[in-house]
Design brief:
Blueprint (H helix, E strand, L loop, with lengths): L13 E3 L3 H13 L30 H12 L18 E5 L6 H12 L2 E10 L11 H6 L4 E7 L1 E2 L4 E2 L2 H5 L4 H15 L3 E5 L16 H17 L5 E7 L7 H7 L9 E4 L2 E2 L11 H14 L7 E3 L3 E2 L6 H9 L1 H8 L3 E7 L15 H9 L9
Parallel strand pairs: 2-3, 2-13, 3-4, 4-7, 7-8, 8-9, 9-11, 10-12, 11-13
Antiparallel strand pairs: 1-3, 5-6
Family: Belongs to the glycosyl hydrolase 26 family.
GO molecular function: hydrolase activity, hydrolyzing O-glycosyl compounds
Pfam families: Glyco_hydro_26 (PF02156)
Amino acid sequence: MDRRGQRRRLVVISVIAATAGAASVLTAYAATGGGSKDASPGGHRPAASAPETVNTGVPQTSPAESRRQASAARKPSKKCGVNSKLVPSCGAFWGMYSVKGRTLTTSITDLEKRFGRRFDIVLRFHDFSNDPPGRFPDASEQELGRSRLLFFAWESKSYKSRTSYKWRDVAAGRYDSSIIVPAARRVRAYGKKVFMSFDPEMDRHMTKGELKGNEAEYVAAARHVHQVFQRAGVRNVVWVWTTTGSLGGDNAQRILKSYPGHAYTDWIGFDPYNFYQCHRAPWTSFEEEVGVPYRWLQRNGLGDKPFILPEFGTQFDSADPERSRQWYKSIPGVMEREFPNLKGLIRFNSGEECDVQLDNGPGMANAYGQAGKAPYLNPPR
């Protein structure tokens, strides 16, 4: 999908309860990398911590039982934390990419007011420059980051000149002093934990459009960026390796050959879209669209990393509006039942291609908002 403003075509974080308590818990974990001390440092999925519930329908058979129930009702539900790699101990993050408001901040907060809850993650795109599009986190992002996690998609290109940079040059250190080291210092100074993906959907940049190099050159570049950040003392980045998730033709092998390795990867991302008639394809449900790459990644030895959808979306079927709305409504149940390793998803609210923006049909935004309020996607934090 072509993107104007911050980025061009890209087919690649979730929602938190809109309460001050929930926001403060997420902010604290982002700042400290908190959570269980025995959580796996490799980002493995920790054991879920189910919220404590009270059955208020039990008859009160005695004063003692009445007092017990009253005491239990006063106990707060157990809260979900995150480990040092930002993996939630229960449920999943619900996020948003949107630049449709008067400002970046209102692009997010207006949607939050509309849906009645706060997003867990805000996705942003940045380029390899020292111009405003390349300086992150900027003031608006820092404002949003007070109570949300930030996800930076960092592209090796210049938005201003529309120039793409070769991965072999990135790996050789050509942009270290001018771009990568200054960015590392800014992120370190920010202090809070952030998600970062270097050249998301790298598999698109090997066959058409922005030809940046081959699989080995991408791996070398991704490892180099990681190493530069490490040498700069950056310890607050959670690295996300993001592909299109498209497995047609020889792209499956292209994706596997582009994996930087477990030591350089904390989360694995892919971008499922139900493009339907735009791509002259059959209608696919959320479960179908996510299930194929999800299970393929697991079969190929990558299931020990938490998964995230840095982008996802669907077209609207005017011939069957209800199944369009059901696409969103099904998400919480499908994730809990079929995709326990999928720990976050971010709605890409843009419709520059294929009409997959949030408000692309009657009731679609409301269906999305209802999904985001489900307990699995909106647990106490």
